[in-house]
Amino acid sequence: MATMESLIGLVNRIQRACTVLGDYGGGDSSFSSLWEALPSVAVVGGQSSGKSSVLESIVGRDFLPRGSGIVTRRPLVLQLHKTEDGTQEYAEFLHLPKRRFSDFAMVRKEIQDETDRLTGKNKQISPVPIHLSIYSPNVVNLTLVDLPGLTKVAVEGQPESIVQDIEAMVRTYVEKPNCIILAISPANQDIATSDAIKLAREVDPTGDRTFGVLTKLDLMDKGTNALDVLEGRSYRLQQPWVGIVNRSQADINKNVDMIVARRKEREYFATSPDYGHLASQMGSEYLAKLLSKHLESVIRARIPSITSMINKTIDELESEMDHLGRPIAVDAGAQLYTILELCRAFDRIFKEHLDGGRPGGDRVYGVFDNQLPAALRKLPFDRHLSVQNVKRVVSEADGYQPHLIAPEQGYRRLIEGALSFFRGPAEASVDAVHFVLKELVRKSIGETQELKRFPTLQAEIAGAANEALERFRDDGKKTVVRLVDMESSYLTVEFFRRLPQEVEKAGNPPGNQGGNPAGNQGGNPASPSIDRYTEGHFRRIASNVSSYITMVSETLKNTIPKAVVYCQVREAKHSLLNHFYTLIGRKEAKQLAQLLDEDPALMERRQQCAKRLELYKAARDEIDSVSWAR
């Protein structure tokens, strides 16, 4: 069967570890707080109710700041660790982890200084707790949270909202179902006006979690006593009431030792005619043991749920560690292998985008299906093939000697001029696909979870991929421009073979269609000479050129996408990082290590995650090792 010390000591150790790792008061919200799952004791009372004296009596040391008005202005999380008899007492603060305080007057000063550091020297309060651990053979294993005293009015230097602010702060602790409430009330005041009891009744209406403590029993008016309260007749709680006799102000002024004060307290109750029959159930020593025993029973009841929560959190932490990645090996070969694996992971995601496994690749098709046809439709062929421009081009092509039958040179110049317009849409298609590929590189790097650890390698891969895409774009532009130039360099022969026949048809008079008169083997040049320079003639030329350009446009609309895919998309799929792989293989071990230089924030996150994982596993092992009676 587990002892009280082993169970409560276990909880104290876990709470201490949680505190050090930041799980309490600002830890990672993605994990359930182990601290909140563990029981603790919150000390609640009005100002000057004797809270500080009760805590000092439990600890057996004079270590808390004193004064008038609001003294406790930040929560004090006090963890008591019982040590072996004869060992020296000392205290440690979380914010000063490497410093031990054996002088408890210095502990008091540090509490005051740390409070002032955050709140200033005025009467402001702060919800940020101070964490203090005390190791002593004279204490029981216990965790207590000393909270600012409840008040009814704001004093000078305090905001008007101070009353509500303090109550809201206290509620954040006492509303938790695992919190044991130590409600401190002075015996020389009516219990019906007790701020602590009023608040405890609201958050714990059944009284299961509330322990009532009456202080200042020795300061009651003569002839009166607090038996009605202590025996549960005035206000009944499920837990017993405990009376406390604190040190008098004279004792405090004389620096009376707390151990001596405890002895005087025992003598007071033992010799009191009013409380003698309750002497064994009164006093700070009894209160500490009572709280410890109750805490033990609560822990026993909570162990199954705590174990379940720990196991769930371990699973979450291990998943997080897998997500963050394990530490990198220092061996150069292992580092090179890691870099290549990361590159392959990125390359795999990039290909998934292109092939449709992830979104984005369809935008390449959108360039060919929408942008290219739209750009071709907007080309200024109407202006280029207007009657005035056709007449000007044909005339300039003829020079001093007009054409005889079909204006071949004029046709060629018109077609070459029209074909030059195709260069713009062709190059624009290359640039549009290049932009899509660059965006897919950026997205793929962001979606490669393993790469997030290494911002330097991320930048190197992005740079290498973009350099490769630039080379592919240059090849793509050269290829599509060649396609346009090829159309310009050799016109389709059938087109020119058709033209003289059409001109001849147009020139022959009725009755002489389809042939030339005898002796006129040149194709009847005299008859159509009048029609050759009319507007209708130039319109026919424009129509013929337009038909040819339409044919070429349909051809380029099919061949440009083929060239772009072959030069850019295909190369990106098959050889995006080939040059980078060559460079990586030549790097020295130091250069490889620089590429695997992790983001410091990520390294810190992994370290914290590893520490939490170690904490939770140790907690699980400790709980498993502690057996108790069922």
Automatic annotation (TrEMBL):
Domain GED: 538-630
Molecular function (Gene Ontology), one example: GTPase activity
Record keywords, A-Z: Cell cycle, Cell division, Cytoplasm, Cytoskeleton, GTP-binding, Hydrolase, Microtubule, Motor protein, Nucleotide-binding
Residue intervals of the Dynamin-type G domain: 35-304
Subcellular location, record wording: Cytoplasm, Cytoskeleton, Phragmoplast
Biased composition (Gly residues): 512-522
Record text on subunit structure and interactions: Forms homodimer and may homooligomerize and heterooligomerize to form the phragmoplastin complex. Binds to PHIP1.
Name of the featured protein: Dynamin-related protein 1E
Taxonomic lineage: Eukaryota, Viridiplantae, Streptophyta, Embryophyta, Tracheophyta
